[in-house]
Design a protein that fits this description.
The structure holds 2 protein chains of 2 kinds.
Chain A lengths: L4 E10 L2 E11 L4 E5 L6 H9 L6 E6 L2 E2 L10 E4 L11 H11 L4 H14 L15 H14 L4 E5 L7 H18 L2 E6 L2 H7 L2 E6 L2 E6 L1 H6 L4 H6 L4 E10 L2 E6 L4 E3 L11 E7 L4 E5 L6 E10 L3 E8 L4 E7 L11 E6 L5 E4 L19
Parallel strand pairs in A: 3-8, 3-9, 6-7, 7-8
Antiparallel strand pairs in A: 1-2, 1-4, 4-5, 9-10, 11-12, 11-14, 12-13, 14-20, 15-19, 16-17, 16-19, 17-18
Helix pairs in contact in A: 2-3, 2-4, 3-4
Chain B lengths: L8 H29 L9 H8 L1 H34 E2 L3 H12 L3 H12 L4 H10 L9 H25 L3 H9 L4 H12 L1 H17 L2 H6 L6 H9 L7 H29 L12 E2 L2 H29 L1 E3 L6 E5 L2 H8 L2 H32 L3 H11 L6 H12 L10 H26 L2 H9 L4 H29 L5 H4 L7 H10 L3 H25 L8
Parallel strand pairs in B: 1-2
Antiparallel strand pairs in B: 3-4
Classes of the chains: A alpha+beta, B mainly alpha.
């Protein structure tokens, strides 16, 4: 059965240090939900609290209406995929996958049939009677997933399952995981520190830092309208410029320290007054032209990297700030280092944050922690 | 990271183990310390220690022990390091056999080598007599310092050999190539690079040899004669015919523990200070041993093996020789008369006791070692760390001292265990436990926690996870450790010599008794059977354990 997961005011302490203070989260049934954050942000800790391998010092954890705080990990009906796969090396692939089913004391034929089904689904049936040490990393990963799913768990938990694979397999396995999750329709919580991986597989992402959820939203929303400066810098790359917000007769403008000014729409009414701000401009949100004395932030090209589809420029602004710019490669020659240029920004796409970076001043941030979509 | 856990069965296990250690290790240890400083009237006294340090007869044994032990350590290094170097860097013919024989040599019963060498080089030894009668040359005899040095070196050089093999194997070929690239090759590279890299292991191996040689009782008691070493002194004082002086024996035991503890701490300090991690992705490829150098290398390795293994072969040979009616002198011709004599002297009982002792002890050792390793690896807390520390104490207690401590603690009512099989069992369990715990702990720490979590999240109980997943995964490590313990129990002398009586007598003790009574034929028969049992067990061990890293 599919279940939703609701976490209310969770607290996690190790001795005297509190790593999660007060965290609430709602994962909808059937959803692919990702906890994303830098290492040490508490994402794995939270996952292991759901699984029952870490104690819970405060708050309530529910699967649907069942409180699981004190439930034995073995009784929570969870499928778990570990970072190192945790395949039992002394059991064959088949025995690994049957392990959970046998613990349920199901009839033999049923155990066998169920294991067959998931071995087939994960394409590991041809290795059924091998010992795991003769499997490649990707194959072990498939066995781990089959084993976790074979017990028809209520929720599937995955702890950085792809981090031990090489880059190519990682991309391949993440589409396998996404596809299986779609097919089985199981509520899934996935932990990773790789933002590209998170974007590729997730329905929704919770970005975490220092044990606090910074933003919960769809991949598109957290990229385009990040809730704060941390999310903006952690998801994708961005250039951070200091500037001012100016309000004049109902219109709002951003102004950089060297005097470039552009109108910006959609500033939340509470913030629409003169103030210092931080402007976050993603590399593709700059427009670049050779300095013709026209409008724009003046800058000098420091270096460039040609990557085929795109060309990256590394520039120094006249304010002394450094910036990275991505342009679609043109057939013309690459602009030489030392060339003076002017930069303008795509004001529809840039984000502006309060001076301390704690809040996005634009409308459109969806911090979506509601029970229903 | 520390985590609060819900209480489970492991708390009870911790408590039971802690109690067992208190009763069977700490209490005896405490008793022996108490006995060393408490006078008969119950007052505190240092008279026993004063007695020891004021008489040359006693203090000499310390300097004797130190002298011969240092010499043995140095010689073991001198013999073991070159052999290991040849073995690790060159493709030697019969290298597998060289390795096997080394193991057989260092696991043989402690005094058998000594006894066999006496039969070869003693006053009326085969070789001595041969030289005297054929050439009229007196080549002297090997009793005393020289004999102990020879026998212990041949017994302990394999420790150096095995340790060094592990170290040499960990040297990455790229380091060799880098030093060649920087202009350092040949002998210069051997001394400046290779030996420098394995220095921590040389240190560890020499301290191990030192501890073993210092605590060895069997060799000096048989071949030492007037050259009395420390463990022999303790034994003599304890079984003194003029009435045992328990207080004095206890005091000497305390001194012995202090000496070994000091060496042990030095070892810990040194390994921490000098160790660095080597990880070799590309082990050095063995070269062909060609030319005169190759011949000398082969000759060296084979010669060492032949000399070291000769006593065991010789003993087996002698056991089939005819003896005179009393069994005290070997005469021409071959027969099974020595075995018949042994049969009449408790051979069956000794063998039964030995097997029973070994199997029972193994059972306890394995169960306790699994539990302790699980507690210390998976459930770190103050209580379990204390248990871990307790379990390591026997490391630094010479076997004779363990025997005395147990007798002191359980020699009178209400826990009178004197002369029972139980007390022998206790002694060998205590003595072998640290080794098995070490290997179990090492194996368990290789197993990631997530394997157990996977099992639990798949619905298995904690007990089922332990028995179905964790223990099977540990089994290879535990099994190989257990076989080594089995062999060590087969050949146990030093604690058993204090604790045995006629009913609980074992093979080694029977052999020892026969030697001391001059029943040469019977001694050879017992020794031969023991040697064969040891060899078979070790061959099984080598078959099972694929790794050459042996934790002895």
């Amino acid at each position: 059965m599919r279940k939703n997961i609701s976490i209310q005011h969770a607290v996690k302490r190790y001795g005297n240090s509190t790593v999660i203070h007060d965290l609430s989260l709602f994962v909808r049934e059937g959803e692919f939900f990702t906890l994303l954050g830098p290492s040490g942000c508490g994402k794995t800790t939270l996952l292991r609290m759901i699984a029952g391998f870490n104690s819970i010092e405060g708050g309530d954890f529910f699967f649907n209406d069942t409180r699981i705080n004190d439930m034995d990990p073995a009784k929570r009906n969870i499928g778990m995929v570990f970072q190192n796969y945790a395949i039992f090396p002394n059991l064959t692939v088949r025995k690994n996958i049957e392990f959970g089913l046998r613990n349920r004391k199901l009839p033999k034929e049923e155990v066998r049939a169920q294991a067959e089904k998931f071995m087939h689904l994960m394409h590991v049936d041809e290795y059924a009677d091998r010992l795991p040490d003769r499997l490649s990393g990707g194959q072990q990963q498939r066995v781990a997933l089959a084993r976790a799913l074979a017990i028809t768990p209520d929720v599937l938990l995955m702890d950085e399952p792809l981090s031990n694979l090489d880059a190519k397999l990682r991309v391949e396995m993440r589409s396998v995981i996404k596809e299986i999750q779609n097919k089985v329709g199981i509520t899934t919580v996935y932990v990773t520190h790789d933002q590209e991986e998170a974007m590729a597989v997730s329905d929704r992402i919770a970005v975490m830092n220092d044990g606090v959820i910074q933003h919960i939203g769809t991949p598109k929303n957290i990229y385009q309208r990040p809730a704060n400066l941390f999310v903006a810098t952690f998801i994708g790359r961005t250039n951070v410029l200091k500037g001012r917000l100016l309000a004049e007769s109902g219109r709002t403008f951003i102004e950089t320290h060297d005097g470039y000014r552009a109108e910006i729409r959609g500033v939340l009414s509470g913030y629409a007054s003169d103030r210092d701000i931080v402007i976050s401009v993603r590399p593709e949100e700059f427009r670049l032209k050779v300095d013709d004395g026209g409008d724009g932030i003046s800058a000098t090209i420091r270096d460039s990297v040609f990557l085929g589809l795109n060309t990256h420029y590394f520039v120094t602004l006249s304010t002394g700030e450094e910036a990275e710019i991505i342009q679609e490669s043109s057939i013309d020659s690459i602009i030489e280092p030392g060339t003076r240029i002017r930069l303008t920004v795509n004001t529809e796409k840039v984000n502006i944050f309060s001076e301390d970076g704690s809040a996005n001043l634009l409308a459109g941030v969806v911090n979506d922690n509601a029970m229903e979509a | 990271m520390k985590e609060k856990r819900r209480p489970d069965m492991w708390i009870a296990v911790s408590a039971v183990l802690f109690l067992l250690f208190l009763v069977f290790l700490i209490f005896p240890l405490f008793q022996i310390m108490k006995q060393s400083v408490i006078a008969e009237d119950g007052g505190f006294t240092l008279a026993q220690f004063r007695k020891f340090f004021s008489q040359k007869y006693y203090t000499n044994t310390i300097s004797n022990s130190l002298k011969v032990t240092l010499a043995v350590t140095a010689c073991s290094l001198l013999v073991g390091i070159p052999m290991s170097y040849f073995y690790s860097f060159y493709r030697l013919r019969l290298s597998k056999l060289v390795f096997t024989i080394s193991i057989l040599c260092c696991m043989s019963a402690p005094f058998l080598g000594a006894y066999s060498w006496i039969l070869l080089l003693g006053r009326s030894g085969v070789i001595t007599t041969f030289f005297r009668s054929s050439f009229g040359i007196d080549i002297g005899n090997i009793y005393g310092f020289g004999g102990i040095l020879l026998v212990q070196t041949l017994k302990f050089f394999p420790l150096v050999f095995i340790y060094m093999n592990g170290a040499f194997r960990n040297i990455d070929n790229s380091l060799m190539e880098a030093s060649a690239n920087l202009g350092c090759t040949g002998l210069k590279r051997l001394f400046t690079v290779v030996l420098a890299l394995v220095m921590p292991t040389v240190l560890a191996a020499s301290l191990l040899v030192f501890m073993r040689a210092f605590a060895d009782f069997g060799t000096p008691v048989v071949i030492g004669e007037g050259y009395m070493t420390f463990p022999v002194l303790i034994y003599r004082e304890f079984v003194n015919e003029n009435g045992a002086d328990y207080g004095f024996a206890s005091a000497i035991s305390v001194i012995a523990i202090a000496v070994t503890a000091l060496v042990f701490l030095a070892q810990k300090w040194a390994t921490r200070k000098f160790s660095f991690s080597l990880n070799s992705l590309h082990p050095v490829e063995k070269k062909e041993a060609k030319g005169i150098g190759g011949f000398l290398m082969h000759a060296y390795c084979y010669l060492v093996c032949i000399i070291a293994f000769m006593p065991q072969v010789f003993i087996i040979y002698l056991s089939f020789r005819n003896t005179n009616a009393a069994g005290t002198i070997f005469v021409d011709g071959y027969s099974l008369c020595s075995y018949r004599a042994a049969m009449s002297r408790l051979l069956m009982r000794s063998m039964g006791n030995t097997v029973k002792l070994g199997l029972l002890a193994l059972l306890f050792i394995i169960v306790i070692a699994i539990m302790i390793s699980y507690l210390t690896v998976r459930r770190k807390n103050v209580l379990n760390d204390t248990i871990d520390t307790f379990s390591m104490i026997p490391y630094i207690m010479p076997g004779v001292v363990i025997g005395i401590a147990l007798l002191t603690a359980f020699g009178h009512k209400p826990f009178k265990l004197t002369g029972t099989f139980t007390i022998m069992l206790l002694a060998v369990i205590i003595r072998r436990l640290p080794y098995t715990i070490r290997s179990a702990t090492a194996t368990l720490s290789q197993i990631p926690m997530s394997i157990e979590e996977a099992s639990i999240s798949l619905g298995a109980s904690k007990l089922k996870t332990l028995t179905r997943i964790t223990v099977p995964m540990m089994s290879s490590g535990i099994l190989s450790g257990a076989i080594l313990s089995w062999v060590a129990i087969l050949t146990e002398v030093s604690s058993a010599i204090i604790l045995y009586n006629n009913r609980s007598i074992t093979m080694t003790i029977s052999a020892y008794v026969a030697i001391t009574r001059g029943n040469e034929g019977m001694a050879a028969a017992f020794a031969a059977i023991l040697t064969v049992m040891t060899i078979i067990s070790l061959l099984i061990y080598l078959k099972i354990s694929k790794s050459e890293d042996i934790r002895l």
